[in-house]
Amino acid sequence: MSSNNTKNNKSNRTDARTRLSAEREREQRVAALRRKMLIGLSTVVVLAVGAGVAVVATSSGSSGGSSTALAVPANTTGTNGTVITYGKADAANTLDVYEDFRCPICDELEKADGSTILKLADNGTYKIQYHMATFLDSNLGGSGSANALAMAGAAVNESAAKFVQFHTVLYANQPAETTDAFADTNHLLDLARKVPGLVTPAFEQAVKNGTYKPWAQQVSNAFNNSGVTGTPTLKLNGKTITVFDNSTGKPISAAAYEALVAQTIAAK
């Protein structure tokens, strides 16, 4: 019995070391990607300042698509419909959310606090204004961010609620940063079918025709010109709020998020 226990203890220690090593490697990859995202976005912003329309070409290279006319989805706001708003229009407070569908840090926040972020919009605490980016396509290679954003345009054309549901599904099924699964339109359509009632014939036609790819380019350009230097970034009533623990690098808890929102609103 003691021999078996010794073997089991050694095995457990080995498993623990393996898990710890894997977690450290994952955290190192995420940290490296965060640095890469900041560097890549800074480059795009510099191009925007120095070359005007050059940033359009840089940002749109991954969008592709067969459609060239700008079709603005219903249920959007801002110039060229580049802002997606969810929640009560007359809410006293506004949460601006800056994200990229391929951003793994955004995915961490979504998994930790996504449902709470939406809950506070649903109960009228604030409305959410989404500002989506596609710069990870340039940083990592591929077109998944732009492709997912174009399909999200078809979703918001149905309703802001459909967009939010599709947004949640995309992060729940986000591929590893080393792959570009969102570049596959058929794969995205399979994910869209997880949102009840989203994939109608009109929706599918808009997706396959690339109807909202020029719009996705405009959304990406607006992000690049926003002055935001990384994703995810959250601003409540214009004030950036810190939703990651500085000591661990992990998202704060749902309870801590609610407390932070209440404190920020009270200080307005």
Question: What does this protein structure show overall?
Answer:
This protein has 268 residues and is an alpha+beta fold. It has one domain (46-266): Glutaredoxin. The protein is built from ten helices and six strands; from the N terminus they run ααβββαβααααααββα. It has helices spanning 2-51, 54-60, 104-122, 135-140, 144-158, 160-172, 185-192, 201-208, 213-224, 254-266; strands at 76-77, 83-86, 94-100, 127-133, 233-236, 239-240. It has a six-stranded mixed beta sheet with strand order 1-2-4-3-5-6, sandwiched between helices. Helix 1 packs antiparallel against helix 2 and helix 2 (54-60) crosses helix 9. The longest helix is centred in the N-terminal third of the chain and has 50 residues, at 2-51. The model is unreliable at 2-14, 19-24 and 36-66 (pLDDT under 50).
